[in-house]
Amino acid sequence: MKKKIGVLTSGGDCPGLNAVLRAVARTADHYGMEVIGFREGFEGLLPPGDFLKLDRNATAGIMHLGGTILGTTNKGHFVAKVGAGDKATIPQEIINKARQTFNELGLHAVIVIGGDGSLSTGLQLSENGMPVVGVPKTIDNDLEATAITFGFDSAVACVVDAMDRLHTTATSHRRVMVLEVMGRHAGWIALYGGMAGGADVILIPEIPFSLEKIAQEVRQRDRFGAKSTMMVIAEGASSREGRQHRHSVASGEYRFGGVGEMVGREIADRTGKDTRVCVLGHLQRGGTPTAVDRILGTRFGIHAVELINQGKFGMMVSYMGNHITEVPITDAVNKLRRVAPDCQMVQDARTAEISFGD
Length: 358
Ligand code: F6P
Fold this sequence. Notes:
Layout: E1 3-9, H1 17-30, E2 33-38, E3 51-53, H2 92-104, E4 109-114, H3 116-127, E5 132-136, H4 152-173, E6 176-181, H5 188-196, E7 201-203, H6 211-223, E8 229-234, E9 246-248, E10 254-256, H7 259-271, E11 275-279, H8 291-309, E12 315-320, E13 323-328, H9 329-332, H10 344-351
Parallel strand pairs: 1-2, 1-4, 4-5, 5-12, 6-8, 6-11, 7-8
Antiparallel strand pairs: 2-3, 9-10, 12-13
Helix pairs in contact: 1-8, 4-5, 6-7
């Protein structure tokens, strides 16, 4: 009898999820396994199970599609994280229900494609007797134990495209332009998107900024005859004396946003410069994955099925030192990979006269 495996996408979506699903279906076929895909993340594991067959036909032609054909959620019965550092334990009754579906469907293992919170849930399932293999996913690129997650490159490409567009209009009008991007706790998107997009100022959660320092930078650029000042700010960035711009929502999570508007207003007041603010929001999460994310997603999907084939469970596929490998899921969860304020990339940026507002 063919081995049957399950796969699910959980948490916030990102470009590249469908590339993983397609690779899982093809690799499973290669090893003579069957795949079912659970709908809406872990919710699909609740009895009697909400799933569809994922074979080569069902996954044909989806590589270039953003989102996930399985659907996903960052709410529901299986939320293991409610905020940075917070940890919630999934009630035993819910875990038992998932195990019931797992057993009734005769599954051999489940591939969990998700970020920190979803992989924490996967770990709990694994500790309760369900063989799990993790695939790291987040546009924020803040997951430990992997050098990169798919979705990040596509999000950065979106930031760069926005910067290119904003740059021309900012220059025509001699304006200051502030672009707010995603990144609640880590500034990777702002740092990469800012550097590639030619930002003059990059503000990230890891380096608290001073509004007066930013204003000085703008005044100085004005004196040198700069036609525009381009700023990228991560949604989780905050001033030295200030707080993060976020509000709690019903699920207990925080929703971020508003820091760009605050910085834009303050800089306009302090410098008298015409300033405009653009919030990129979920544009960064949607659309076609870049070639990098398609390849990374595909290789992660292949390796996940190979781990199942080798009977290696409780592991997450990872990209390290230029190749795909695997690490225990425990190495990846409960800590975030943030930008080190003294890392080489930040130092390089400073040498190239990019200000971090500090
Ligand atoms: O974790 C990825 C992320 O894109 C964050 O950067 C952002 O704050 C958050 O998800 C938004 O998630 P949602 O709007 O889906 O709740």
